[in-house]
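Before relying on records like the one below, remember that each one covers exactly one chain. Contacts with other chains, cofactors or solvent are not represented anywhere in the record.
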Amino acid sequence: MFSLSRKLLLICFASLFLGAVAPACIAAEHLSLRICADPDNLPYSDRTLHGFDNHIAELLARDIGRKPVFVWARSRRGFLREQFNKGACDMLMGVPEGLKHVRTTRPYYRSSYVFVTRSREHLDITGFDDPALNHKRIGLQILESDFSPPSLPLIRNGHTAQLVGYESFGKDAGNIVRAVADKEIGVAVIWGPLAGYYAHQQSVPLSLTVVSPAVDRSGVPFIFDMAAAVHSDDAELASQLNQAIVRDESKIDAILRAYHVPQLPLANPGGAL
């Protein structure tokens, strides 16, 4: 039996001899869903499709009757302007809900920056002003040559000289977690999904504690509702994805749990459809 895509290819081929483009050929152009993804950014995505956002994107695409096609692009500064907003793809996974210059879907998970420590030390860090941080080397992710946002309260609390920077992308992204396990640093403050993924791979037990407060007094948040993004004028695709996220909620949750993503209750679980 012919698949739908095979039938459409035959129709399109036949239409070449009729001197006209069949309506089915026009429809065929819209069967795929182009998804921009980083080719080397686990646990989120990679070229072998082993990231959790790869799996969730494939799930959502198929739910709405589209074929997922990944367009590989580095998730670096200028990506939205130079790639996504110039039409390189239709959808982007893993963006904060409400991100400017795109239309975001309802969130499919909520996570936080976390303190990563060795479980046997029982540090139980409660916030950026916790005395347990004193005199310890503190690992932070480097984002485009700058320390990640948790550096703000750490510096304000007098920990500047203790900060150690680690790569956020690619094959070295897990080094910051390994450094905690190997006692190269005493604690790390990391975005939750990366922390959970690499902590599970260590030979010693590590503890992940949600940072506090959730929003720095300067207004910088440390907890985010994460969504997919489409182009600002593509309300139809956003609506389709919103409905798919609702239908596939349990499957999405299973994927996130398999990758040990620390999850918090969504701020607005109802969201817009």
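Residues 235-247 form the longest helix (13 residues).
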